[in-house]
Amino acid sequence: MTGAGAAFAAVIGTLAIPGGAMLLLAFIPSWRLAARLNALASFATVAAAAVLLFRQPAPDGLFLVDGLNIAFLLLNGLVGFTTSLFSASYIGHEIDTGRLAPHHLRLYHAMYQAMMLGMNLALVSNNLGLMWFGVELATLSTVMMVGLYRTPAAIEASWKYLILGSVGIALALFGTILVYLAAQPALGGGMKAMQWTGLLRHAAALDPALLDVGFVFLLIGYGTKSGLVPMHAWLPDAHAEGPTPISAVLSGLLLNVALYALLRFKILLAASHASIAAGRLMEGFGLVTLFFAAIMLYRRRDIKRLFAYSSIEHMGIITFAFGIGGPIGNLAGLLQMAMHSLTKSAIFFAVGHVAQAKGTQKIAEIGGLTASHPFLGWTLVAGIAAIAGLPPFGIFTSEFLLITSTFARAPLLAVLLGLGILLAFGALLLRMTGLCFGAPSPGDAPSSAAATPLLLHLALVLAVGIALPGFLYDWFAHAAALLG
Amino acid sequence: MLAPFTPGATAFGLAHVLAGALVLVSLMMLYQDRLPALVNVLALHAALLGIAVGWQAWLQRAPELYITAAIAIGFKAVAIPLALHRIIERLDIHREVETVGGISLTMLAGIGLVALSLLVMLRTAAQADALAREDLALALSVILIGMLMMVTRRNAVSQIAGFMMLENGLILAAAGAEGMPLVVEISVAFSILIAFIVIGVFLFRIRERFDTVDSAALDAFRGELQ
Questions:
Q1: Percentage of chain A surpassing pLDDT 90?
Q2: Is residue A201 part of a domain?
Q3: Which domain, by its residues, includes A459?
Q4: Optimal mutation site among B202, B224, B225, B226, interface A, most CBs of chain A within 10 A
Q5: Cβ-nearest to A240 among B127, B178, B223
Q6: Does ipTM exceed 0.95?
C-alpha cells in the first residue's frame, strides 16, 4: 500500500471503527462483553490515529490532517481508550449496586462510540459543514449518556444540556453560513467554498465584513460547547449528574474539540482581511471565564461539580492563551489543553471510584481519603496538585509559559491571569485538604479501582512537567506555528 | 407609464415577501399565550418556510432544496405539531398561560431584534447579492426571535417552538445562500435533533425549564443542599 493510501485508510479507520462499534454495541446484550469490545474498539481507534503520525493524507481531499489536529486526534484516542477501561470497572460497580440495569448499557456503549465518531469526524474533516455535523453528533450522544441514570436530576441536567447545546450548535451553523457567503463570490459556491484548504488559500479574497460577523456567531456557538462563561450553564449539571466516565470524556475531550473548531476559524481570520480582533475577543472571554469559575470554585459542595468548574476555569485559561497567540502563547495553549485533558480525566477516574466507595458526591461527607483509601486518596492529591498548577506537573509548565509570554506583551493582562489562577489554586487546595486529609469519613467500602488509566495519565503529566521530550516540544511548536 | 415587467424583480420580490411573512409569523408566535394556539402558529411558520425554500429551489435551479422544503412541510408543519398537540393533551397543559416579562414587553423586544438584525446584516452583507442579503437579514431576525422565545418562556413545549423557530431561520438562511452544499443534510440533522427533543419531552414528561425563581428549588436541583 502506498503512503497516501495507508494514511487515507487510517483516517477512514478513525471514523469507521467507532462507527462500526456503535452499530455492533447497540445489539450486544451482555454488558461485560460490550465493555470489553468498547475498550477494544477504542484501542483500535487510537492505533489508527497513531498511523497518521507517520503518514498523512494529501490535503485538498475530504480530510485534512495536519500538525494541529493530529495532536487532538491522538489525545482523543488515548483518553477515549483509557476512559473505556475505567468505564468497564465503573459500570461493573453500578450494576452491582443496582443503579444501572444491564439494558441501559447497550445504549451507553453505543453512544460512547457515537461520541468518539462525532469528535473524530469534527477533527479530521476538511469541510466546515461536516465539522459542524461531527460536533452535533458528539453533543447528542453525550446528552443521551448524561441522562442515563433516569433520576429527575439527571433528566433535568440532560434537558438543560440539550437545549443550551442545541442553541449553541445552531448559532455555530449560522456563523458557518456567513463564512460560506463570505467565500462564495471568490470561490464560486459549492463544496469548494466550504473546504478549509480552499478557504485558506483564498483567505485574502474573502469578504471581511461577513467574516467578522460570522466569527462572533461561531465564538458564541462553539464557545457554548466549550463551556465559556456566560454560556457555561449546562456544563456543571452535565458533569455532576451523568455517569463519571462521561464527565471524564466531556471535560477531557469534547470541550477541546469545540475549541479546536474555533481555532480553525481563528486561523482563517488571521489569514484574511477581517478587521475583527479574534485574539482580543478570545482573551476577554478567557479572562471572564477564568475569574468566574475561580470564584465559583469556592462555593461548590458537590465533588464532581467542583471539578466541572475547574474545567471551565481551564477552558478560560486555554482560550486566553490562544487569544494572546504568538509562538509561545499558542504552544502554552496546546500544552495546557493536552495536560488538562489527561489530568482532569485522571481526577474524574479517581472521583468516580471515591463516590462509589463513599456512596456520596457531597464534599462535606467525604474526608480523610488518604487514610481510608490510600491509593485513591494519594492519586487524587497528585491530580488536584497537578490541576491547580503546582510543579513538577505539566500544567505548571504551560501556565508558566503562558504567564511569561503574556508579561512580554501585556503586563496588565498577565497580572490578571496570575490572579485568576491563584484564586482557583486556593480553592482547589482548600478542598484537597478537606477531601484527602484529616479524619476519614464513614464509608470504607473497598474499591476495585482500575489503576492503570489513572497512573498512566498522571505519569504522562508528570513526565512532561519534569522534562518535555524534544520530539514532543518540536511537535507542539510545529502545531503552534500553524496557529500563527 | 408602468415600469417594465422583469421576471427577476418579481422572483426576488416573492422571495422577500415569503421571508418577510416568516418574520411576521415569528412575531405572532410571541404573543400566543395558549399552547395549542402556539403550536398551530408554529405549523404555519414551518409551512411558510417550506414554500420559501421551495421558491428558492426553483429560483436557484437547485432541485435538492425541494427535499428540504418537503421536510419543512411534511415533518415540521404536520408531524411535529401533531406530536406536540398530543403532548399538550397528555400533560394536560392546555391552559398554560405564560407571563415571563409580559407579552407587550416581549413584542417590543422582538421588534427591536428585527431592527437590529436588519441594521447589522444589511450593512455587513453589502457586497453579497441582493437576494442573499435581505434573506440573511430576515433570517437572522427569525433566529433572534426564536432565541427570545426560548429565553422568555418556561414551558417545555414553548421552548421547542422557540427552538424550531430558530432552526427555521437557519434553514431559510442556508437556502438563501446560493449553491450552499449540505443544506439538505443539515435540515435532516436538525429534524433528527428536534425529533430527539420531542421524544425526550414525551418520555420524561418534561413540563418546564428548571430555573424557577424559587432559590430553594434551584439549590435542590443543583444537588447542593446539605
A1: 57
A2: no
A3: 277-484
A4: B224
A5: B223
A6: no
